Amino acid sequence: MTTLSQRAPSSEFRLLATPLVLFLLVFLGFPAVVNLVYSVSEVSFETLRSPEITGFSNFAAVWNDSSFWQASWFSFRFGMLTALLECALGLFLAIFLSPLIEKRSWLMAILMLPLMVAPALVGLMYRLVLHEFVGPVPYYLWTWFGASFSFLGPASAFWTLIVVETLQWTPFAFLLFYMAYQAIPKEIVEASAMDGARYRHRLWYIELPLMAPTIVVALLIRFIDGFRVFDNVYVLTGSGPGGSTASLSIYIYEAFFKQGAIGKAVAASVILFAVSFAVLYGLNAIAARRKGAR
Fold it and tell me: What's the pLDDT score for residue 163?
């Protein structure tokens, strides 16, 4: 029996795909080409329509800028630590709260509340709560313990940002892991229990390996999101003292809007895109090779 895809002419598939292709060309392809042109041009807000192509001087300026490497190192550390913490906490909550959530499903709505708030508003809220002079948390620490602690100071701002990001986005990892945990076939778990496997053995040798693809995907998503963080970091500390809390996104924003170095900012974004694409392509190639080896 011939399938629908075998009977349908290829011209119909091209016709159906045309709107999507046009949409991608207009809303993604055109801005990408413009950005590539700006990245190799001397351009300002006055010359956006007539940029002067100067070669790769913008890329050289970015490459030789110590602030760019400082922002890259901050973004890498921030993305890696937040991804690990969020996934570890999310996995713990998904496994050990699963019986409770099955009985009281309304708890899921409470756990998802942090995801409903915009990151910029979260940053603003914590900026008010943790402010060294007017914030209630430093006030009560001083009143009760006589300790004066600057959460947003140079020594502790990075870890404060880590905690704020982790508190907001752990529910996302928890949701992914909870769904993966619920999708584990009950027959496998029951059979292992009948064979005498203890809980920790079932968790380590059966449940976690079955959840491994979801764990890898969650780590990758959260790392990418943490690596390109902007809003809550910018609201809480900005670029920080000496650029200590400037992520790559903040570096590009400041180069574009504050310095007016449009070509430099676009060149930095092109470098960021190229590195991200190379990493994702490499991970995809490794996954495809492992799948083929099986």
Answer: 93
State the pLDDT at residue 293.
62
119-129 vs 157-182: helix axis angle to the nearest 10? 130
**What region does 240 belong to: left with phi over 0, alpha with psi -120 to 50, or beta?**
left
pLDDT < 70: residue spans in the chain: 1-10, 290-294
pLDDT at position 11, please?
Answer: 73
Instruction: Please answer whether residues 130 and 152 qualify as being in contact, where contact means their C-beta atoms are separated by less than 8 angstroms.
Output: yes
Are 24 and 258 a contacting pair, CB within 8 Å? Answer: no
What would the DSSP string read from start to end of 31-57?
Answer: HHHHHHHHHTEE--GGGTTS-EE--SH
| Contact present, 161 and 78 (Cβ < 8 Å) | yes
Structure confidence at residue 12 (pLDDT): 76
The amino acid at 26: V
Give me the amino acid identity at 33: V
Q: Which residue is listed with tokens 């990758």?
A: 220
* Alpha carbons within 13 A on the beta-carbon side of 6: 3
- Helix residue spans in 64-203 (DSSP H): 66-96, 98-103, 106-111, 119-129, 136-145, 157-182, 186-194, 199-202
Q: What tens digit of pLDDT does each residue of 36-51 get?
A: 888 888 888 888 788 8
Cβ 271 vs Cβ 279: under 8 Å: no
| CA atoms of 48 and 38, how far apart (whole Å) | 8
Q: Are 155 and 242 in contact (CB under 8 A)?
A: no
